[in-house]
Amino acid sequence: MLNSYILSYSSQSFILLTPFLWAFEEREKLLEFYERVPGARMHASFIRPGGVAQDLPLGLCRDIDSSTQQFASRIDELEEMSTGNRIWKQRLVDIGTVTAQQAKDWGFSGVMLRGRAT
User: Fold this and answer.
1) Which of 76, 86, 63 is nearest to 13 (CA)?
2) Digit-coded pLDDT (tens) for 10-63
3) 38-48 core/surface letters (b: 16 or more CB in 10 A; e: else)
4) Which ranges carry the NADH-quinone oxidoreductase subunit D domain (predicted)?
5) Helix, strand or coil, per DSSP, at residue 41
6) Helix or strand or coil: residue 48?
7) Which of 43, 53, 67, 113 is least enclosed by beta carbons within 10 angstroms?
8) φ, ψ of residue 51 in degrees (nearest 5)
């Protein structure tokens, strides 16, 4: 599922083509792991009734561990490039703000009443 979410996050603003392409690259890396285990890229069918289709390929766990360390830093870069972007901020910061009184009047609850993080 992560392979789909990373693309949807990066496509939030098509003015930023670089994060979208970076996310696409990371998605491809994730799909390679899918392909190495069951042989399918989109619909993994590793676990089956009665067991698994085959053993994990040698070195897969090591490769996944190495990839996750790189992936974490790439996620930070994607987030910074998106939320630190001047145009992105102009379009989204202070949009849809609601006063405390409006929130109470309109029946907001939960996180909507707590306000934004500072």
Assistant:
1) 86
2) 555 556 677 778 888 888 888 888 888 877 777 767 666 777 767 788 899 999
3) beeeeeeeeee
4) 17-115
5) coil
6) strand
7) 43
8) 145, -145
pLDDT tens-digit readout, 83-107? 787 887 888 888 888 888 898 899 9
User: Could you tell me the CA-to-CA distances from 77 to 7, 18, 37, 41, 110 in Å, in that order?
Assistant: 14, 11, 29, 26, 30
* 40 within 8 A of 99, measured Cβ to Cβ: no
- HSE value, Cβ hemisphere, 13 Å, CA-based, for 46: 13
Hunting for tokens 């996310």 — which residue is that? 23
HSE-up (13 A, CA, CB side) for residue 42: 0
User: Are the beta carbons of 33 and 60 closer than 8 angstroms?
Assistant: yes
On whether the CB atoms of residues 31 and 3 are closer than 8 A, the answer is: yes
Element of type H or E holding 47: strand 47-48
Whether the CB-CB separation of 55 and 82 falls below 8 Å is answered with no
In angstroms, rounded to a whole number, what is the distance separating the alpha carbons of residues 37 and 39? 6
